[in-house]
Amino acid sequence: MLNMWADGELKGLCEAFIKETQGLLTWSWDEPLVAVLAQFSVNDRDKVLGSLGPFMGAKWDESEIEKAPEIVRQLAQDMGGLRSGQLLFTTDAGKNVFIFGAWWPWQDDQTISLRVGPHWTELSDSESDDLMASFKACFGL
């Protein structure tokens, strides 16, 4: 299960996304969502969205989330659900470990938050600890 990260599939995707958004996004750690967090200007919206497509592959908004796989619907619910303008991206959610991206525009209409994190099923505590340490290191945290 963890092999997807260790073998480089998800790590490679994260590294490519980080490289694509270098100088555009600055990452910090968001403990409540167990994810990395970048806040950026709406002026960079199209650049960041353009980088997310090849990285994630799947995207849901509030009108489409009910069509998502159960694990993605549950993830959205765990984050408080999707509201107008919010998006949830994922890599292949059919795998035991996948990456999500939560796109949250602020009410000030000037800022967008992007949280990116791993989501998994069936990992032991030590496997999930190793995954999180590797994920954070990939983002320089």
Describe the structure.
With 141 residues, this protein is of the alpha+beta class. It has helices at 3-6, 9-20, 45-56, 70-78, 125-138, and strands at 28-30, 35-41, 58-60, 87-90, 97-105, 111-120. 36% of the residues lie in helices and 26% in strands. The chain has a 6-stranded antiparallel beta sheet, sandwiched between helices. The chain contains 5 helices and 6 strands. The mean pLDDT is 89. It has one domain (30-138).
Task: Give a quick rundown of the structure.
With 141 residues, this protein is an alpha+beta fold. It has helices at 3-6, 9-20, 45-56, 70-78, 125-138, and strands at residues 28-30, 35-41, 58-60, 87-90, 97-105, 111-120. It has five helices and six strands, in the order H-H-E-E-H-E-H-E-E-E-H.
- Give the % helix: 25-40%
Number of E-state strands: 6
| Rg measurement, Å | 14 Å
Order of secondary-structure elements: HHEEHEHEEEH
Number of structural units classed as domains: 1
Our measurement of the CA-to-CA distance between the termini, rounded to an integer number of angstroms, reads 23 Å
